[in-house]
Write a structure and sequence with these properties.
Structural class: alpha+beta
Order of helices and strands: EHEHHEHEEHEEEH
Number of helices: 6
Helix content: 40-55%
Radius of gyration: 16 Å
Number of domains: 1
Number of strands: 8
Distance between the termini: 32 Å
Strand order of the largest sheet: 1-3-2
Bound molecules: zinc ion
Shape: flat
Strand content: 15-25%
């Protein structure tokens, strides 16, 4: 059976959310490098993040589902500064200024909390902890199914 990477993620929550949605649709999928990224987020960029793997035959179906989720997400969250939907949840370790501090945290042994995640707005370039939530149904449903 041929498996391909349909999407890569730099955070565990997002990767699992997407995997859950594909599984609900009956698509056989799994996460590659999940452990590595979760245990050592600093390595995430180096190894290319958590990879969502699917069977090649399911590519069209999976792409359709992932695009639909992204569209819902895009409409669900807005930048608190300018109201744009052009925002993304990113790790701050991508920025050079924070790699040093992340490295220090890693050396001190608490690397798991050394990488912070923030929302970034591509329109006004602001970063913020919480976007304006317009419709949080996507995440609510996931929480309930995990309990
Ligand atoms: Zn903005």
């Amino acid at each position: 059976m041929d498996f391909i990477i349909i999407e890569t993620f730099d955070n565990y929550i997002e990767a699992n959310l997407m995997m859950g949605r594909l599984e609900e649709a009956g698509i056989n999928c799994w996460l590659k490098d999940e452990q590595t990224v979760t245990l050592n987020p600093i390595l995430s960029n180096a190894i290319g993040g958590i990879k969502l793997m699917i069977e090649k035959n399911d590519t069209d179906k999976a792409t359709e589902i992932l695009n639909a989720i992204k569209e819902i997400k895009r409409k669900s969250f807005a930048c608190p500064h300018c109201g744009s939907h052009n925002i993304e949840y990113i790790t701050t370790s991508r920025k050079p200024s924070n790699v040093i501090s992340a490295l220090f945290t890693w050396m001190l042994g608490s690397y798991a909390i050394g990488v912070e995640q923030v929302w970034h707005c591509y329109d006004c370039n602001e970063e913020f902890e919480k976007p304006v939530e317009l419709n949080n149904e996507l995440y609510k449903n996931t929480d309930e199914s995990e309990q």
